[in-house]
Amino acid sequence: MLRPLVPILPIVVLVTVPTARAGACPPAVALAGDPELVRAVRDQLDARGIAPELPSCPAVRARIEHRGAVLVVGIDRADGPAIERAVTGPATAATVIESWTRRDVAEPLLATRAVPADEPAVAASAPPPAAQGIQLFAAEETSLASDRTVWGGMQIGACIMLGPICAAARVHGGKVMSWPASWSAFSRKGAEVYAGVDVPIAVRWTRLTLGFAAGYGSMFTRHHGDGENMGIEISGPRAEVHATLSLPLTAHIAIDVAATGELTQATGMETHGPDSPDPSIVFPDEPRALFRLAIGVRYGAL
Description:
Low-confidence stretches: 1-22
Number of strands: 14
Order of helices and strands: HEHEEEEHHEEEEEEEEE
Distance between the termini: 82 Å
Structural class: alpha+beta
Helix content: 10-25%
Strand content: over 45%
CATH topology of the largest domain: Porin
Shape: rod-shaped
Radius of gyration: 33 Å
CATH class of the largest domain: Mainly Beta
Largest sheet: 8 strands, antiparallel, barrel
Number of domains: 2
Number of helices: 4
């Protein structure tokens, strides 16, 4: 009576062994993304008993990356589109990933709940954090003036964040590089100093900064027939509006592309040199407006 049972035993063993092996698989995650972030999150997961991907065990696939100033965790799902969450650091990222590997944690967190009519829904992802600290910037400029001259120069400046706005100071300097035919006997250079307010706005992974500034400047015009230091200096108040698009390269360095519109006003004139300029020479008027394009570098907490 026992002989019919003997052939069945190997079958029972073969069926039950894979089941036992599958039950022994630990929670596992396959991480991808920025190498530095992956290492930091991997350390957090190892401390919580979440293993890396194993050949014979299923694993949740996750990625982690910086998008500007925001840390984003993405979870790939076989039954639907990937899910993304904005987090504050590697520890929070590890908690989000752990919730998808441990079903006893994930199911209560992801259960569908009705939202009361008088309770507004909370957005899933947090907005990019506001920039903080001090920023320094420098750029080369090309300017087109209202008198049809083209200027070449540069600007340098600094910006201190005060909540959502930035108190900024900047200096422009340059000289005329191209001029109309009536300008062939003259050269001109100028400089301005400004103080104003900038408002940075997060646009995906970039920052758009709009600003206004007021200041004071001067332009020195020299006739080529006079001495090197002889000429006329015209000075007065200045006002400008500007827009800058910052493209982050790292957490502290960005490429700036800027456009500026400037208005000038002549309120003072001073003659330089031991002798007065020849009264028969008619010096060109100061331009009343300049439009600047600049590209440069910004450094600081972005």
